[in-house]
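Workshop exercise sheet. Pairs work together: one partner reads the sequence aloud, the other fills in the structure field after running the prediction. Swap roles for the next sheet.
Pair: D.N. / O.F.
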Amino acid sequence: MDEKNAFEEQIPSQQGVFLIVNRQMIPIVKNKTTLGRHLENDIVFHEDFLSRHHAEIINEDGKYVLYDKNSTSGSFVNGKKIERCVLNSGDLISFANINIMFVNNNAKIQVKSTGTTQTLRNPSDS
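Structure field:
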């Protein structure tokens, strides 16, 4: 395995993947990002109602999947309780009263317009 491939295994090739928490952007730079109260998590929350190891986001073949880790208060995506959920850009993740927006600006998955822009014509020109 060359150095480039070893590096790519440690850090996902996608850029522009992050969480927005209280107006703060937190980049997702690891293949597995853990969330919870315990200090060993990648993203730590100081809320009593959160479990020590509440949830994790795993990059699975370019898709980011949120897993609830048998938390006490549960994990929600767009208002629905989940155990596992593939995240889409703009999804709202909730842990009780903590709201987190998942954003993926990866160009590979952005929906591109298939139409072309045409010049507007004045009907009197016909």
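Discussion prompt: The helical segments are 3-10. What would you look at next?
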